[in-house]
Amino acid sequence: MPDTTHQTARFAEAGGVSYAYRRLGAGGETPLVLLQHIPDLSAHATIFQS
User: Fold this and answer.
1) Contacts of 35 (CB under 8 A, 6+ apart)
2) Which of 1, 11, 32, 37 is 20 to 30 A from 19, alpha carbon to alpha carbon?
């Protein structure tokens, strides 16, 4: 069973937005930050309408 689940996530808030994160590894080093961007496709939705 993995040690990282939704229950082990930590949260930080900035500018009214809540961000979930996890600390991995031994710590003390420069952190690696990975951000995921999901594009807004609503502007292109008209091509799918008939």
Assistant:
1) none
2) 1
- Please, what sign has the CA dihedral across residues 34, 35, 38, 39? negative
Contacts of 18 (CB under 8 A, 6+ apart): 11, 12
Separation CA 46–CA 3 (nearest Å): 44
Report how far residue 15's alpha carbon sits from residue 47's, in angstroms, rounded to the nearest whole number. Answer: 35
Please report, as a single letter, which amino acid is at residue 8.
T
C-alpha span between 19 and 10 (Å, rounded): 8
